[in-house]
Amino acid sequence: MNELTRRDEMSLAGAALRGAPWKAAAITGAASAAISYVMGVILPGPADFAWALCLGVSLFSLVAAIGAVRKPDTGDRVTRQARLWSLRHPWRFALYPGLGAAVMMYPIQLVFDGEGVFGAARDAALGGAAVYLIAAGLTAISRNGGGQTTR
After folding, report:
1. Is the pLDDT of residue 150 over 60?
2. Which of 33, 27, 34, 16 minimizes the C-alpha distance to 97?
3. Terminal C-alpha separation, the chain
4. What is the pLDDT of residue 75?
5. Where are the alpha helices (H) located in 18-115, listed in sequence order?
6. Is the pLDDT of residue 59 over 60?
7. Residue 145 has pLDDT above 50, yes or no
8. Residue by residue, what is the 3-state secondary structure of 100-136?
9. Confidence of residue 71 (pLDDT cuts 50, 70, 90)
10. Minimal CA–CA distance to 124: which of 111, 110, 96, 105?
11. How many other CB atoms are found less than 10 A from the CB of residue 92?
12. pLDDT of residue 115
């Protein structure tokens, strides 16, 4: 049985994310959300709190995803193998951060945006899709660049 189930793939993506730079991701997300909101207050035009928070969630997810696979040769054996799998399958790996971002964005959109249940779901899904595409693209680029080899 050489085929991995979807559950196995999600376990590998989760194992790869175990060594993500969570502190750097949290700082990046919080700082970008704060800067975005403050810029909306300072500059003419409305300050959109929901957009600023969703930007922070997106950057948090992206920094965690890319940081998790950046150094595939560090960590314990399971984490290294999961990171190598993630580099070989960037589109499957990116599902995990994309879904995570969408799940985190949904309550933000629901509470702060005021578009209702379906509008919030649509906006969260679009935000998660953007995180998915960017994370998969950057993971694919990091697989081919930087002189790193994936066995």
Report:
1. no
2. 16
3. 20
4. 74
5. 22-42, 49-70, 77-88, 90-93, 95-108
6. yes
7. yes
8. HHHHHHHHHHHHHHCCHHHHHHHHHHHHHHHHHHHHH
9. confident
10. 105
11. 17
12. 84
* Cβ–Cβ < 8 Å for 93, 136: yes
Alpha carbon distances (Å) from 136 to 11, 27, 105, 122: 17, 22, 19, 21
CA dihedral angle for residue 5, residue 9, residue 11, residue 13, rounded to 10 degrees: -170
| CA pseudo-torsion sign 20, 23, 29, 31 | negative
pLDDT of residue 1: 47
55 touches 30 (CB < 8 A): no
The mean pLDDT of the chain is 88
Q: What is the DSSP letter of 90?
A: H
> Residue 118: which residues within 8 A CB-CB, separation 6 or more?
none
